[in-house]
Input
Amino acid sequence: MINTCMKLNTQIDFAITTYCQARCRSCQRTNPDTGEHNDWLTPTHMSYTVFDNLLNKIPHNLYAAQFCGELGDPMMHPKVTDFINRAFEHPNLSHLAINTNGGLRTPDWYTMMGEKYQNNLQICFGIDGMSHDSNWKYREGVDWQRAMQNMLAFKQAGGDTEWHFIIFDWNWQEVEEMYNFSREHDIELVVKYNRRMFGKISDENKIKCDKLLARMNT
Output
């Protein structure tokens, strides 16, 4: 499996917001005791003017960009649509990748963006379960049903869609179901093990999961 978000030879990652509706307990923005953002973080949205000025200063050989950021979800930005449209106005930019937990905005919005930009816009959906309860164990605060609907809407509209699935000790047994769903809907998968202590898979279960992954990839 190849993470096409990382295949781009030249790209700039714009952290356009430090807001996020999720309370992922091992995320560096989250206080693991309260689930709220850490005191040192001031939630902020990048202004459109700042973004516009940055793009004006970037050389014309930039052909790929990313909205990811480690401290927020790009879909929380109230002007994310304007940011996307502005990015594609850059003379040579032909590819924009966005990482999101998927639970923000609506299927209609994803359909609109998929139809408009097709494979030039890639959205990587971080969804780590095949049910709301399973996904919530890490992505606390995320509406799983909405996230799945949004991902399907973007895929069906022609958008470049990736499903990023992190394996924890509580969801490894859902791997087969996840693979079957992705194949049914022709969604590219990027699967990786959680390396942090929160929810880290046990050695025993990892051996079982390795075998399951090997079988799914044959």
Observations:
- The first strand starts at residue 12 and ends at 14.
- The CA atoms of residues 128 and 153 lie 18 Å apart.
